[in-house]
Amino acid sequence: MVSVQSWLAGIHSLISKVFISKVRSLESMDCNFDAHINVICGPNGCGKTTILESIYLLAQGFSFRSRDLRELITWKQNELILRGEFEDEGRERKRALRVFSRGSEVRENGESLKSPTAFFGTCPAVIMQPSDIELLRGGPDVRRHWLDEILCFRSSANSLVLRNYKRVLQQRNKWLKEFKQNGAAVGGEDLFRVLTQQLIELGAKLWAARIALSKEVSEIITRYYRKLSGGVDEITCAYKSSILKTLDALDAADPLSDEMMDEIPAGAMSASGECAECFANGSGNVAGSAADGSDVVSEDMLRNAFARKLADLEFVERLQGMTMAGPHRDDLALCASGYEMRSVGSQGQCRSAAVAMRFAAVDVASRYLTKPILLLDDIFAELDVNRRDAVASLIREKECQVVIATPQSEDLPFKADAMFELKI
Fold first, then answer.
1. Could you tell me the pTM of the whole model?
2. With 60 as the cut, is the pLDDT of residue 268 above it?
3. How far apart (Å, rounded) are the C-alpha atoms in residues 96 and 93?
4. Domain, as residue range, for 290
5. Rounded to an integer, what distance in angstroms lies between the CA atom of residue 241 and that of residue 331?
6. 330 with 241: CB under 8 angstroms?
């Protein structure tokens, strides 16, 4: 057992209270949290993860389990209510969220906010759970979501670029779909040109931000993975983009559905499953370079390359009814021994890499915002003894407030400062 002393030193973001009403299986619950280690214990199905989800929702502004917050409302109930009290660098934040069939009401310190997403960026939280293995095993959209979330930790401007890119992409796809069906679309060719130019501008900004972030986190992930694996093997990370010249294989690809193209990026894998050299060059840097041979890829270069790409694909896009190139097609490649872990990584390797990615998110939040609240959903049961000890050691290093959900508290490598026992 590890006794954690003086944990509060260095804490910048924490939750002190949460009230939960009619959220999933929880009818009503009121919790007061310690600033150090909080353990929620109970059998499966008693609502442990729901408490973590409620904290995460009040901290981040969205759920890690559902896109539609109405899905969180208890069966046959009309609404849910969440209230939480947070502190970040000494500032108190009282947050309240009411979700009902027609929408939601959001408040912080008594002031109305437009949506729960307005909570994001002041009291960050990072969740670790067994399903994180999908960060390695899942499709590119899972890794893009992870990358974009911590991209917003870096700067609120990135959040605006992301929202605007998704909005313009949706409008452009709607135009293309209508053109495919009818041979014409509302707004005509002028609107299509405007949307395409907006997509190019926003796409270049988003690429520049993602590439910079991927270079930063690749070194962090590699370092954490080395600790978690005991130095037995190494991994490398690189941003996979369909737009950089040396990564661009879409010209040679047959038109595929949106889902197929996300699942099987053209040129990403050799027949044996080996990572294409242009995706992960072993250094963690983005493959491809500027004309002078440097690794710097400027926003202007990305803008010009994107414009050429969309011009080349325009005929196919009109046939397919969708935008076939852009940041929404990209991926983050994690490779071990030159092979992409998504295809050949063992369970242990993938779990270690997923934990390393979550700790990288903790580091990014700590660097650009404040130390986040760390939420652990029964992660130790999935790890062997050595990895459990390594994860416990890293958690102690971070000095974050921790909320752990587990069915058996006696198996934890920590001594609880506050214990909550749930029953079905």
1. 0.86
2. no
3. 10
4. 134-347
5. 7
6. yes
